[in-house]
Design brief:
The complex is a heteroheptamer. Chain B is 66% helix and 11% strand. Chain B is mostly helical. In chain B, a hairpin with a 5-residue loop joins strand 2 and strand 3. In chain G, helix 3 packs antiparallel against helix 11, helix 9 packs antiparallel against helix 11 and helix 16 packs parallel to helix 19. Chain G is globular, with a radius of gyration of 21 Å. The two termini of chain G are 18 Å apart. The chains are: A mainly alpha, B mainly alpha, C mainly alpha, D mainly alpha, E mainly alpha, F mainly alpha, G mainly alpha. Chains in contact: A-C, A-D, A-F, A-G, B-E, B-F, C-D, C-E, C-F, D-F, D-G, E-F, F-G. Chains E and F meet through helix 3 and helix 4 of E and helix 1, helix 2 and helix 3 of F. Strand 1 of chain B pairs parallel with strand 1 of chain E. The complex binds sodium ion (2 copies). One sodium ion binds next to strand 2 of chain B.
Chain lengths: 117, 158, 92, 771, 127, 137, 502
C-alpha cells in the first residue's frame, strides 16, 4: 500500500509544482494547496501508516491495549493543515487584490518590481 | 404542549436514571412508558393536543417512509430498466401552508422523496415550484401533493 | 460467511462501485451543476463508506467523522450554488 | 605612541562637533598638531640612530592576533617625520589656501584623520593593524579627493582612486592573513626572524604577489598608476601631502618593510625592477605631453615612485640607500613644486603651463622656491637631488650584466624628471607676464613660506648630507636589513657616475629649451588613450557592468515561473545526484509494505484522476470542485489510516477553502491557459522529475527501521499523566501545546492580513508609498 | 441474528446507494440526475448508518448515528433545492422530453444573466 | 441567496450546530474533536446563516466584531499556557488540573482552557476572513 | 528557576502582540506601548544573555515533559545573542515605525503584526525542536506577508506574490525535510536528533535529508540560486518593514542552517562543496546585482544577498574559526542592514525618492545626518576597524588554511564590489548636486514632521550606529563572543547535555 501512497505523494508534489508554473494566479494557489497536501501526506506516510487503529485510548482503559497508529505525525499534520489554511486564505485574498490592482492574471506580466528603476 | 413534552422527557430521564441502563432500548422504553403515564393522567382538551400530535407525528413519519420507499422503488425500476419512461416537468403547486417553517418542511419532504425536487418558492410564498420525473396531469400531481404531504403538515403544525 | 466478510467482500465493493459511477459523472459533467451534484453524492456515499468501515474496524470513533461530513459537506454545496447563481458567464 | 597616532583622529572627531567655530586663526593654530608630533618624533632620533627600536603594545582583538603593536625604527621614523613635518607645512598652507571655505572644518578633519592613519600605518608592527591604517589612508584620501563633491570629475576620481587602492587593500588583507598564517604571527619584527621559513613555504609566491598588488596600487605603479593623475582633482594641499609626499609612499614603505622578510628572492627583485622600470619610464615620458601643471607633477611623481620601486627591486646596499635618500629628496622638492603650483593656481586661477609665464615679477619668493626645487629635482649639485641621483646611478652600474640597460633606463627617467621639474618649477616664472596676470600678487606668507622652507631644506641637506645620513638614512637602511657602510657625500670625485649626471643635466636642459609643452602634443598623445590602462580598465568596467546586467537579468528576470523552476531544478539536481550517486540502486524494501486492498486502490485512483482533472480543468470552478474531491479523498484516506482528527480537520478546512474560493472567484480573472506546449512539456518533465524524486525518497525511508520511542511515550502517558484519551488532542493541547499556540497565532495574523488587505484602502494621497 | 439484521439493512442501503450511482450516470439532464439520485442515497446511507448503530449497540453510538441521519435529512433536501435552483437560473437545459415548465420566464425576463445580488450581503445592499 | 427554504433551514441549524460545536470542543480530549474542529463548526454555522440571511443579519446576531474573538481567544490560550509559570513556578504549558472529575468535561485542567482559546480564535479568524471577503466582493 | 528565563522574551513579545490587538485603532497608544514593550523586551533579552554568558546554556521543557518528548527551548550563547540582537533591532524599528509609518497602516494592525514577527524570530532562535522551528518559521512568514502587503499598493502586491510563492515553497521543502527526518529517526528534538541521525545507517538518506534542509533554509536565507523573492519584494514595503526584513529575515534562515548543520547533520565533503559553491555564487550574484541597481533599497537588497555568502562560506569551511567569522558577520549584518534600511527611509522622507540617480545634495543639506549615515554605510563596507571588517579576517585566513582559494577570491570580490557600490552611492546621494525633485503633494516631508516623529526616526539610527561602532571598536569582545559561539556549535555536547539533562 505504501508504494501507492508514495506515488500519490509524488503526484501531489509534481502536480503542485506544475500548477505553480502555469503563469495563472488561480492555478498558482491551487498548486500551493496541492503541494501542501503532498507534504502532509508525506509526513503521514513516513510516520508509518496503520489501518483501523486510531490513537484513542479505548473506553475504560488507561493505556492502549492493542496496536495504535502513531499519533505524533497526526498532530504535526494537524498543525500543518491549520497553518496552511491560514496561509491559503491569505493567498486567495492576495491573489484577488493583486488581480484587482494589477489588472492581470498573467504572472508573466507581473515583473515590474524586478525592473530597474 | 411544550410542558407536556418536557415532562415526558423528564420522566424518561428519571426512568433511565432509576434503571441505570443507558441503552437506546431502555430510553425508548422509558419514553413510551412515560408518554402513556402522562396520557393517562392528563385531562382537558388544551392539554390533550400533545397526545393527539404524537400519533400524527408518527403517522407522518411512516407516511414519509412509505413515500420514500415507494418512490425509491419507482426510481429503481426506471434506472434499472434499459428504456427511459420519464415524463418530467416543472409544476407550480399553489400552497395552503403559510409559515416559513411549514413551507420549508413541505419542500424538503418533497425533495427527499426521489423523483421530485423543490426548485423554488415564489416571492409571495404562494407557489412552490416542483420538478418531477413523472407528470401525466398537472392537477393530479398538485392534488397528490396537497392531499399527501401538505395535508399532514397542516395537521401536525396547527 | 461472517458479517465482517460480507461487509468487506460485498457491501464495501458495492459502495466502491457506486463511488466510481458517481465519479464518472463528475468527470463527464457536462455542466458545473452536474459536477457539484456528483461531489455532493460522493460525500454522502463517503458517509456510508465510513459507517461500514467503522463496523469493519470496530471503531465507532469513525462515525464522528461521518457526523462532520454530513454537516459540513452541505455547506460546500451551498457555496457552490451560491457561486453558480452569482457568477457571470465568464467561465465557459 | 598610541596617543601620537590618535591625536590626528581626536583632532578630526573634535572638528565634527566644533566645526562651526573652526575658522581663520583656529585653522592656523591647528597646524600645531602636526608640529608637536614632528617635534615628538624628532626627539627619538638619537635613540633610533643608536639602533634602538622603540615599542609600544596595546591589546585589541588578541584572539585574532590583532594588537596595536607599534615599533619605531629608522624606517618608521623617516616616514613619521615626513608625515608630521610636511603635514605641519601643509596644515599651515591650507589655512591660507582654503581661507573662508565653507567646509574648512571638514577638510582639516579629513587631513587629521589621514595623518593619524598614515602614522599608524608606518608605526604598526602588527601586520593587521598596519592593514587597518592602510585602509584608513585610502578612505581619507577618498574624502579629500572628493572634497569638491559637487564636481562630477572630482567624484569620479575619488571613486576611481578608492576602487584601485581599495582593491589593493583587499589584496594586502589576503596577503597579510596568508603571511600571518604561514609565519604563525602577525608581528612584523618577528617575521624578520622567520624570513627563511616564510620564503621557503609553498605560499611564498601568493604572499609576494598579494603584497605587490597592494604596494603597486597604492604607489601608482604601472598599470595601476592612472588613479593618481585623477586624484589631482583634490585641492593642492592634498596633492602635496597625500599624493606626492606621503600616502603614495605607503606602497614603497610596505616594500621596504618587507624587504627583510620577503626580499632577496628572484621573483621579488625581478618583478620590482620590471614594474618599477616600466612605471618610471612610462610616466616620465608622459610628463612631456602634459600642459596642466598638476598633471606634469603627477606623472613625474609616478615616475619617481617607479624609480623607488625599481631601487627596492635592485635591493643592493646602494640601491636601498638611494631609495631612502630619494624618499627625502622627492618629498622635499615635489612638495615644494606642488605648493608652488597651488599658489599659482590660487592666484591666477589656472594651471595651464602654456599660458602661465613671468610670475617671478609678482611672486618672487615663490619663484625662488620653484627654482630651487626644480634644480633639486634635476639633481644639480649641491642639491640633495644630486646625491640621490648619484646613488641611483651607482646602484644601477653595480648590477652586472643588466647594468647598462638599467642605467640607460635610469638616465632617461632622470632626464624626463628634470624636464618635468623645470616645467613646473621654472617655466611659470620665466618669460613675460601676460597682461591678464597684472593683478596677480604674492599671497600671504602662510602660503609662500612653506614651499620656501622645503626648497631651502633641499639645498641645506645637499650641502650637509650628514644631517640626514647618520640620523635618518643609516637607520632606514639597517631597518631594511642591510648593514651599510655607505655614507652620503656630495662629492665623489670624477667618475662614471658624475659623467652620467652631467649627461643627464645636459640632455635635460636641452630638452627643456627645445621642447615646449603644447596643447597639440597633449591632444596627439590623447589619441592613444584607448590603449592606456585607464581606458582599458574603464572599458573593462563597462564590460563588467554589461555582464553584471546580463547576469542579474538572467536570474532575476521577473518571471515567477522561472524562479520556481530554477529552485526546483536546483533541488532535483542536488538531491538526485546525492540519491543516485552513492550506490548502485535505491534500496526499497517492498516486503515491509502492507497489502493493497481494493478500496484503498479505488480511493487512490479517484484521487489520481481528480488531480489530473484539476490540472486539465478549463474552468476555475471545475478545478476548485475537483480540488474538493482531492481533499475529500485525502480525508477518506485519513479515515482508513486511523486518523479521525485529521479526517475531520481536513474535511472542514477543505470545505472552508472551497467557500473562500467561491467567495472570491467571481472577482478573479479568467482561468488562463497561456503556456504553449513547449513550456508545458518542459515544466511537465521538471515536475515529474521532482515528484519521482520525492516518491523514491519516501520509499527508501520506509525501508529504514522505525523508532517509536517518542510516540510510545505519548501513548503511555496521555491518560496517566495528561488525563486525555485522544492522544492526538493531548499532543496538541499539552505535549506540543506550544505548536498549537503558535498555530492559532498564525491564523490570527492571517486573518488580520486578510482584513487589512481588503479593508485598508489608502487615500489617493497616500497611494504612493510614503513611509 | 443481529448480524443477519445488520447484513440485510446494510444490503438494502447499499442497493439504494448503487441505484443512485447508476441513476446519476444514466439520467439525461441535471434535474433528472438530481431528482433520481441525490436522495436515493439519503435513504441508502440512512439504512447503512442504522446498521452501524445496531452493530455497536450503545447509547453514544446510537445518538451519533441518529444525529448523522437527522443532519442528512435536514441538509440534503436544502442542498438539492439550492443546486436545482442555481442550475435553473444558470440556464441548464431541461431534457427534450420535458412536458411542462411552470418556471419558464420567471427568471429570464431580466435577460440572460439573471440579476442577482453581487453580494452575499443582499439585505444590506438595499440601503 | 433569496430562498426561504435555506433561510428557514439555516435558522434551525444555527443553534443545532453551535451546540454541536461546543460538544465537539469539550470532548476533544477523549474523542476526535477539540477546539479546532469545534471552532470550525461554530464558524460554519454562522457562515451558513450569513449565506442564507445576508451578512447584515448575521452581524446583528453576533453584535460585536468577530475579530475581537481573536485576541480574546489568544488571551485565554496564552494565559492557560503561562498559568503554570505564574501559579506553580513550572514551565509553560505544564498541565494544571482540578483534582475532581466533572461530568461531560471529564478532568478540568488548563488544557481545556487552552482548547477553548483555540476554539475562540478559530471562530474569530474564520468569521473575520469570510465576512471581510464577502463584504468586499 | 533561571531556566524560565529562556522563554521570557517570547512571553513579553506575545503579550505585547495581544495587548496591541486590543488597542486596535488607537494608534497613539500603540506607538507608546510598542516602544515601551520593546524596551522591556530588550531588558529581558539582556538579562537572558548575561545569564547565559555567565552560567552557560539554559533549557526549559515546555509542559514539563522531559526531552525529547515535549518541546524544548534552549538558550545557548548563539541563541541568546540572536535574541539580544533581535531585541535591539526590535527597539530600533519599533521607534522608527512609530515615527515613520503612516497612520492608515498603523490602524490596520501594523504593530501587533510587528511584534508577532519579533515573537516568531525569537521563537525560532530559542526553540530546540525542529517542528516547532517550522511553526516559528510560519509565524515569521505570515507576519512578513502581512507587513509586506499592508496598504496593498501595486508594487507591494506584485512583490508579495513572488515573495509569497517562493517562501511557501521553502516551507514545503522544510516540511518535506522534517517528514524525512521523522521517518528516519522518530524524533523531533534537535539535541536528541544529533545522536539519532548519527545512528542512521543509510547515509545517503541522511545526506538527502540534509540537502532538503539546505534548500528549504537556503530559500529563506536567499542563497544562490534561491534568492529571487528578495530583490522582487524588499524594496516595496514601508521602510520600517524593509528594515526589520533586511536585518533579520534572511538571518533566521542562516541561523537555521548553522544550527542544523552543526547540531544535527555533519557537513560531509559533498555538502561542504555544495555550501562553498553556493556561497561563492551568492557572493558573486549579490555583488553583481548591487552594481546595476539605482534604487537605494534595491541596492541594499542585493547586498543583503551578497553578504549572506560570507556566512555560508564560513559554514561551508566548517572550522571553528570559519564559524567564528560567520557568526561575527551575522551579528554585524543584523545591526547594519537594519540601520541601512532605516537610513534609506529617512532619505526617502526627506527627498521623496529612492533613485540614486535623482537624489543628491545630502551632504550639503544635512551634514550631520550624512556623517551619521556614513557609519552604517562604511561599517557595511568593512572599512577597518568598523564592524564589517573583523569577520573577514577569520574567513579569509580560514580560506587560506583550508585551501579554498576561490572562496577567498569571492570574499575579496564581494568586499570590493560592496566598497565600490557604497562609494558610488555616497557619491550620488550625498555628494552630487541632485536633480530638482518635484514637490510631491501631501508628502509627509521630514522637515514637516513634529520633533517627536523626527526623534523617533533618528534615535534608532543613532542607537544602531553606536552599536555598530561598538561592534567595530570593541571587536575584541565580539570576537570572544563569536569564538565562544563557534566553540559551542562545534562541540555541541553542552547543548545536548543541557537539553537531555544528562
Ligand atoms: Na430528491
Ligand atoms: Na424526489
Amino acid at each position: 500500500m505504501e508504494v501507492l501512497l508514495a506515488i500519490m505523494v509524488g503526484t501531489l508534489y509534481a502536480s503542485g509544482i506544475y500548477m505553480i508554473l502555469r503563469r495563472s494566479l488561480v492555478k498558482l494557489i491551487i498548486g500551493i494547496i496541492l503541494l501542501g497536501n503532498g507534504a502532509n501526506l508525506l509526513i503521514f506516510l513516513l510516520g508509518r501508516i496503520a489501518k483501523g487503529s486510531p490513537p484513542i485510548i479505548p473506553g475504560d482503559s488507561k493505556v492502549f491495549l492493542e496496536a495504535y497508529s502513531d499519533p505524533l505525525p497526526q498532530a504535526l499534520i494537524l498543525t500543518a493543515i491549520v497553518i496552511s489554511f491560514g496561509l491559503q486564505s491569505f493567498a486567495i485574498v492576495l491573489v484577488k487584490r493583486a488581480h484587482k490592482v494589477l489588472k492581470t492574471d498573467d504572472l508573466d506580466e507581473m515583473n515590474a518590481t524586478d525592473e530597474y528603476s | 404542549m411544550k410542558n407536556r413534552f418536557l415532562a415526558n422527557l423528564l420522566l424518561t430521564f428519571i426512568w433511565v436514571a432509576l434503571t441505570g441502563s443507558f441503552t437506546i432500548a431502555n430510553i425508548l422504553f422509558g419514553f413510551i412508558l412515560s408518554y402513556f403515564v402522562l396520557f393517562i393522567i392528563t385531562r382537558g382538551s388544551g392539554r390533550a393536543r400533545y397526545f393527539k400530535l404524537v400519533p400524527k407525528l408518527i403517522g407522518f413519519f411512516f407516511y414519509f417512509l412509505y413515500q420514500l420507499v415507494k418512490a425509491n422503488v419507482q426510481v429503481a425500476w426506471e434506472v434499472g430498466t434499459p428504456k427511459l419512461h420519464m415524463t418530467p416537468g416543472i409544476v407550480g403547486v399553489p400552497l395552503d401552508v403559510e409559515s416559513d417553517a411549514q413551507i420549508t418542511l413541505l419542500a424538503n419532504m418533497i425533495t427527499l422523496t426521489p423523483g421530485t425536487l423543490s426548485l423554488d418558492v415564489s416571492e409571495d410564498k404562494k407557489v412552490l415550484y416542483v420538478y418531477s420525473m413523472y407528470i401525466t396531469n398537472r392537477e393530479e400531481f398538485i392534488r397528490d401533493i396537497k392531499d399527501g404531504f401538505e395535508k399532514r403538515i397542516l395537521e401536525i403544525s396547527s | 460467511m461472517t458479517l465482517d466478510n460480507y461487509l468487506y467482500y460485498i457491501i464495501l465493493p458495492a459502495l466502491s462501485i457506486a463511488i466510481l459511477l458517481v465519479f464518472f459523472r463528475f468527470f463527464k459533467g457536462p455542466s458545473i451543476s452536474d459536477r457539484v451534484v456528483a461531489v455532493d453524492l460522493l460525500v454522502t456515499i463517503g458517509i456510508g463508506v465510513i459507517a461500514v468501515y467503522s463496523i469493519l474496524s470496530h471503531q465507532p470513533t469513525f462515525l464522528d467523522i461521518a457526523l462532520i461530513l454530513a454537516l459540513i459537506g452541505f455547506l460546500a454545496t451551498v457555496a457552490y450554488s451560491f457561486y453558480i447563481q452569482k457568477r457571470k458567464d465568464r467561465d465557459k | 605612541m598610541l596617543s601620537a597616532i590618535l591625536l590626528g583622529f581626536i583632532f578630526s572627531i573634535f572638528l565634527v562637533f566644533a566645526g562651526k567655530y573652526f575658522k581663520g586663526k583656529l585653522a592656523v593654530l591647528s597646524s600645531l598638531v602636526p608640529l608637536v608630533l614632528f617635534l615628538y618624533f624628532l626627539s627619538f632620533i638619537p635613540q633610533v640612530a643608536s639602533g634602538e627600536v622603540i615599542r609600544a603594545n596595546y591589546q585589541w582583538v588578541p584572539s585574532l592576533g590583532l594588537n596595536l603593536d607599534f615599533a619605531l625604527d629608522g624606517l618608521s621614523l623617516l616616514f613619521s617625520l615626513l608625515i608630521t613635518g610636511i603635514g605641519f607645512l601643509v596644515f599651515a598652507y591650507t589655512a591660507a589656501y582654503l581661507k573662508g571655505h565653507d567646509y574648512l572644518d571638514r577638510f582639516y578633519g579629513y587631513l587629521g584623520m589621514f595623518m593619524g592613519a598614515m602614522l599608524g600605518l608606518v608605526l604598526s608592527d602588527n601586520l593587521l593593524s598596519m592593514f587597518i591604517f592602510w585602509e584608513l589612508t585610502s578612505i581619507s584620501s577618498f574624502f579629500l579627493i572628493g572634497f569638491n563633491n559637487t564636481s562630477e570629475a572630482s567624484r569620479k576620481s575619488a571613486v576611481l582612486a578608492l576602487a584601485i587602492t581599495g582593491s589593493g587593500g583587499f589584496l594586502l588583507l589576503a596577503g597579510s592573513l596568508l603571511l600571518g598564517g604561514v609565519a604563525g604571527t602577525y608581528s612584523i619584527s618577528e617575521m624578520v626572524g622567520l624570513s627563511d621559513s616564510i620564503v621557503q613555504s609553498e605560499s611564498y609566491l601568493w604572499i609576494v604577489l598579494l603584497i605587490f598588488g597592494a604596494a603597486f596600487t597604492k604607489s601608482a605603479q604601472f598599470p595601476f598608476h592612472f588613479w593618481l593623475p585623477g586624484a589631482m582633482k583634490a585641492p593642492t594641499p592634498v596633492s602635496t601631502y597625500l599624493h606626492s609626499a606621503t600616502m603614495v609612499k605607503a606602497g614603497i614603505y610596505l616594500l621596504l618593510r618587507f624587504t627583510p622578510v620577503l626580499g632577496g628572492e628572484d621573483i621579488w627583485n625581478t618583478t620590482l625592477i620590471t614594474v618599477g622600470g616600466i612605471t618610471m619610464f612610462y610616466a616620465a615620458v608622459h610628463t612631456l605631453f602634459r600642459t596642466d601643471l598638476k598633471g606634469v607633477l603627477a606623472y613625474s611623481t609616478i615616475a619617481v615612485l617607479g624609480l623607488l620601486v625599481f631601487l627596492i627591486g635592485l635591493g643592493t646596499e646602494y640601491a636601498l640607500t638611494a631609495a631612502a635618500v630619494y624618499i627625502i629628496v622627492h618629498a622635499l622638492y615635489k612638495a615644494t613644486l606642488f605648493l608652488v603650483t597651488g599658489i599659482i593656481d590660487h592666484e591666477t586661477g589656472m594651471r595651464d603651463i602654456t599660458r602661465i609665464a613671468g610670475l617671478r615679477k609678482v611672486m618672487f619668493p615663490v619663484a625662488i622656491a620653484g627654482f630651487l626645487a626644480a634644480l633639486s629635482s634635476a639633481g644639480m649639485p649641491p642639491f640633495v637631488g644630486f646625491i640621490g641621483k648619484d646613488l641611483v646611478y651607482e646602484s644601477t652600474l653595480h648590477m652586472g650584466t643588466w647594468s647598462i640597460v638599467l642605467t640607460v633606463l635610469a638616465i632617461a627617467t632622470n632626464i624626463l624628471v628634470l624636464y618635468a621639474g623645470f616645467v613646473a618649477g621654472i617655466k611659470p616664472f620665466t618669460g613675460t607676464l601676460p597682461e591678464s596676470f597684472s593683478k596677480v600678487h604674492l599671497p600671504g606668507f602662510l602660503m609662500w613660506l612653506p614651499p620656501v622652507v622645503l626648497a631651502v631644506l633641499g639645498l641645506v641637506v645637499g650641502l650637509f648630507p650628514g644631517i640626514i645620513d647618520g640620523p635618518l638614512i643609516q637607520p632606514v637602511v639597517s631597518a631594511v636589513g642591510i648593514d651599510s657602510e655607505l655614507h652620503l657625500k656630495l662629492w665623489h670625485g670624477f667618475n662614471t657616475v658624475l659623467g652620467l649626471s652631467a649627461l643627464t643635466l645636459a640632455v635635460g636642459f636641452a630638452m627643456y629649451f627645445l621642447i615646449k609643452p603644447s596643447k597639440s602634443k597633449e591632444r596627439g598623445v590623447a589619441r592613444f588613450d584607448f590603449i592606456s590602462p585607464l581606458s582599458l580598465i574603464t572599458s573593462f568596467g563597462s564590460a563588467f557592468r554589461t555582464f553584471s546586467n546580463w547576469w542579474t537579468r538572467i536570474f532575476q528576470n521577473g518571471f515567477l515561473r522561472n524562479y520556481v523552476s530554477t529552485i526546483i531544478l536546483f533541488l532535483v539536481v542536488l538531491v538526485g545526484y546525492s540519491l543516485f550517486s552513492d550506490h548502485d540502486g535505491i534500496p526499497i524494501d517492498f516486503s515491509s509494505f502492507s497489502r493493497m486492498t481494493y478500496y484503498e486502490m479505488i480511493i487512490m485512483g479517484i484521487m489520481f484522476l481528480a488531480i489530473f482533472f484539476v490540472i486539465g480543468a478549463r474552468s476555475r470552478l471545475t478545478a476548485v470542485v475537483a480540488m474538493g474531491v482531492v481533499g475529500y479523498a485525502i480525508c477518506l484516506m485519513f479515515v482508513i489510516y486511523s486518523a479521525p482528527d485529521l479526517a475531520m480537520t481536513q474535511f472542514s478546512i477543505d470545505t472552508l477553502t472551497v467557500i473562500l474560493f467561491v467567495l472570491v472567484l467571481s472577482s478573479l480573472p479568467k482561468y488562463l491557459s497561456i503556456s504553449d506546449y513547449k513550456m508545458k512539456a518542459i515544466d511537465g518533465v521538471l515536475s515529474v522529475a521532482f515528484g519521482i524524486l520525492i516518491t523514491l525518497i519516501a520509499l527508501e525511508v520506509l525501508g529504514e527501521p522505525v523508532n517509536k520511542e517518542v510516540s510510545n511515550f505519548y501513548a503511555d502517558n496521555a491518560y496517566v499523566m495528561a488525563k486525555g484519551k485522544n492522544v492526538v488532542n493531548v499532543i496538541l493541547v499539552d505535549f506540543r501545546g506550544v505548536d498549537t499556540l503558535m498555530e492559532i497565532s498564525v491564523l490570527t495574523i492571517a486573518a488580520i492580513g486578510v482584513f487589512s488587505l481588503l479593508k485598508l484602502r489608502l487615500r489617493r494621497d497616500d497611494r504612493e508609498l510614503k513611509d | 441474528m443481529t448480524d443477519t439484521i445488520i447484513g440485510i439493512i446494510a444490503t438494502l442501503g447499499t442497493v439504494f446507494v448503487l441505484l443512485a450511482g447508476v441513476g446519476i450516470l444514466r439520467m439525461p439532464d441535471t434535474y433528472l440526475r438530481m431528482a433520481v439520485t441525490t436522495k436515493a442515497a439519503t435513504l441508502g446511507i440512512g439504512l447503512i448508518l442504522v446498521a452501524a448503530a445496531i452493530y455497536f449497540n450503545d447509547l453514544s453510538t446510537t445518538t451519533r448515528v441518529l444525529a448523522v441521519i437527522i443532519f442528512i435529512l435536514l441538509t440534503a433536501p436544502v442542498g438539492a433545492h439550492l443546486i436545482g435552483k442555481a442550475s435553473y437560473i444558470k440556464g441548464n437545459k431541461l431534457w427534450e422530453k420535458t412536458i411542462m415548465d411552470d418556471l419558464d420566464g420567471k427568471y429570464r425576463k431580466t435577460g440572460k444573466n439573471i440579476s442577482l445580488p453581487r453580494n452575499m450581503d443582499h439585505d444590506k445592499e438595499k440601503h | 441567496m433569496k430562498t426561504i427554504i435555506l433561510r428557514t433551514a439555516s435558522n434551525y441549524m444555527l443553534p443545532l450546530l453551535l451546540v454541536f460545536s461546543v460538544f465537539i470542543l469539550l470532548r476533544g480530549h477523549y474523542l476526535p474533536g477539540g477546539g479546532f474542529v469545534g471552532g470550525l463548526i461554530a464558524s460554519i454555522a454562522f457562515v451558513l446563516h450569513a449565506f442564507a440571511n445576508g451578512l447584515g443579519d448575521t452581524r446583528q446576531l453576533i453584535r460585536f466584531h468577530p475579530g475581537f474573538l481573536m485576541p480574546a481567544g489568544l488571551t485565554v490560550s496564552f494565559l492557560s499556557g503561562i498559568s503554570p509559570i505564574i501559579f506553580a513556578g513550572k514551565p509553560l504549558m505544564t498541565g494544571l488540573w482540578y483534582p475532581h472529575h466533572l461530568p461531560i468535561v471529564g478532568n478540568l485542567g488548563s488544557a481545556l482552557f487552552f482548547d477553548i482559546g483555540v476554539y475562540l480564535v478559530v471562530l474569530g479568524v474564520t468569521l473575520t476572513i469570510i465576512f471581510t471577503i464577502s463584504e468586499s466582493v | 528557576m533561571t531556566e524560565q528565563l529562556v522563554i521570557y522574551p517570547l512571553i513579553t513579545q506575545m503579550l505585547l502582540a495581544i495587548v496591541l490587538m486590543f488597542f486596535w485603532s488607537r494608534i497613539q497608544w500603540q506607538r507608546v506601548v510598542s516602544i515601551l514593550g520593546s524596551l522591556i523586551n530588550l531588558g529581558v533579552a539582556v538579562w537572558l544573555f548575561v545569564t547565559v554568558w555567565q552560567g552557560g546554556t539554559l533549557s526549559i521543557q515546555a509542559g514539563n515533559w522531559e526531552a525529547p518528548f515535549g518541546i524544548t527551548f534552549v538558550a545557548d550563547t548563539f541563541s541568546a545573542t540572536l535574541v539580544l540582537l533581535t531585541s535591539i533591532a526590535g527597539v530600533a524599528v519599533s521607534s522608527f515605525s512609530a515615527g515613520s509609518v503612516i497612520p492608515a497602516r498603523l490602524k490596520f494592525g501594523f504593530f501587533p503584526i510587528f511584534h508577532f514577527l519579533l515573537l516568531g524570530l525569537n521563537g525560532a532562535f530559542l526553540t530546540g525542536d525542529i517542528f516547532n522551528l517550522y511553526v516559528w518559521f510560519e509565524i515569521i512568514i505570515i507576519t512578513s506577508f502581512v507587513l509586506l502587503t499592508i496598504g496593498g499598493e501595486k508594487a507591494q502586491l506584485e512583490g508579495a506574490v513572488k515573495y509569497f510563492t517562493l517562501n511557501i515553497l521553502a516551507s514545503i521543502v522544510f516540511l518535506t525535510a522534517i517528514a524525512v527526518l521523522y521517518g528516519l529517526t522518530g524524533s523531533l528534538n534537535m539535541a536528541d536528533l544529533a545522536s539519532k541521525v548519527a545512528a542512521v545507517e543509510n547515509r545517503t538518506l541522511v545526506q538527502v535529508n540534509a540537502l532538503l534542509f539546505l534548500v528549504g533554509f537556503g530559500i529563506k536565507s536567499a542563497l544562490f540560486p534561491l534568492y529571487f523573492w528578495l530583490p522582487a519584494s524588499y524594496h516595496t514595503p514601508p521602510s520600517a518593514v524593509s528594515a526589520i526584513f533586511g536585518g533579520l529575515l534572511t538571518k533566521v534562515g542562516v541561523y537555521a542552517l548553522i544550527r542544523v548543520f552543526t547540531l544535527i547533520f555533519e557537513v560531509d565533503p559533498f555538502l561542504e562543496n555544495v555550501l562553498l559553491a553556493v556561497a561563492v555564487l551568492t557572493l558573486f550574484s549579490g555583488a553583481v546585482g548591487a552594481i546595476v541597481q539605482n534604487n537605494i533599497r534595491k541596492i541594499f537588497s542585493y547586498l543583503v544577498i551578497c553578504h549572506i555568502g560570507y556566512m555560508i562560506a564560513g559554514l561551508g569551511m566548517m572550522t571553528e574559526m570559519a564559524i567564528t567569522g560567520a557568526i561575527f558577520y551575522l551579528i554585524h549584518d543584523i545591526m547594519v542592514k537594519t540601520n541601512l534600511f532605516m537610513m534609506s527611509g529617512v532619505i526617502y522622507k526627506i527627498k521623496a525618492n529612492h533613485n540614486i540617480r535623482k537624489l543628491g545634495d545630502f551632504y550639503a543639506d544635512h551634514p550631520k545626518l550624512s556623517l551619521l549615515f556614513a557609519i552604517p554605510l562604511f561599517s557595511l563596507v568593512g572599512i577597518p576597524p568598523l564592524s564589517g571588517f573583523w569577520p573577514k579576517l577569520s574567513l579569509i585566513s580560514e580560506g587560506w588554511n583550508t585551501d579554498n582559494f576561490i572562496v577567498i577570491a569571492a570574499i575579496i570580490f564581494a568586499s570590493f564590489i560592496t566598497l565600490f557600490v557604497i562609494v558610488k552611492l555616497w557619491g550620488e546621494v550625498f555628494w552630487k548636486t541632485g536633480e530638482k525633485l518635484p514637490e510631491v503633494r501631501n508628502f509627509p516631508y521630514f522637515n514637516k514632521l513634529t520633533g517627536i516623529k523626527k526623534a523617533q526616526m533618528l534615535a534608532p539610527i543613532i542607537f544602531l550606529s553606536v552599536v555598530s561602532l561598538y561592534l567595530g571598536f570593541g571587536a575584541g569582545n565580539i570576537q570572544n563572543l563569536a569564538e565562544r559561539i563557534a566553540f559551542e556549535l562545534m562541540d555541541n555536547q553542552e547543548y545536548i547535555n543541557t537539553v537531555l539533562s544528562k
